[in-house]
Amino acid sequence: MIKVTRLNGRSFTVNALYIEAIESLPDTTITFTTGKKIVVREKEEEITQAIIQFYRAVNVLGFRQDVEGIGYEE
Questions:
Q1: Residue among 35, 40, 30 at smallest CA distance from 10
Q2: How far is CA 46 from CA 34, 50, 52, in A?
Q3: Is the pLDDT of residue 69 over 60?
Q4: What percentage of the chain carries pLDDT values higher than 90?
Q5: Helix (H) or strand (E) segment spanning residue 13
Q6: If you ran DSSP here, which 8-state letter would residue 8 be given?
Q7: Which of 12, 47, 61, 67 is the most buried (most CB within 10 A)?
Q8: Edge-to-edge strand list for the sheet holding 19-24
Q9: Close Cβ partners of 68 (under 8 Å, ≥ 6 residues apart)
Q10: Quick one: 13 exposed, middle or buried, by C-beta within 10 A (0-12, 13-18, 19+)?
Q11: pLDDT digit string (tens) for 2-13?
Q12: Which residue has the higher pLDDT, 61 or 12?
């Protein structure tokens, strides 16, 4: 789960495993695998880093917490 903030200031968490795309339109828009979209205050890069940290925490795709930058820019 990663924490995000709606434009109205309300914070909540979303399951990073269901994120399909992140776009800056100019507001950051997260699209889920269900097709649902949300607009958040965080920048695209912040969301990407939060997803990578989440993947490492749950060991998705073999990400290891002790290794930096495996296949992704940080």
A1: 40
A2: 22, 6, 10
A3: no
A4: 66
A5: strand 11-14
A6: T
A7: 47
A8: 19-24, 28-32, 37-40
A9: 74
A10: exposed
A11: 999 999 999 999
A12: 12
Segment 24-43, tens digit of pLDDT:
989 999 999 999 999 999 99
Contact predicate 62/28, CB 8 Å: no
Question: What are the residue boundaries of the structural domains of the chain, listed by start?
Answer: 2-62
Q: What is the DSSP string of 23-66?
A: EESSSEEEEETTS-EEEESS-HHHHHHHHHHHHHHHTGGG--TT
Q: How far apart are CA 49 and CA 61, in angstroms?
A: 15
Residue 30 has phi, psi (to 5 degrees) of -105, 130
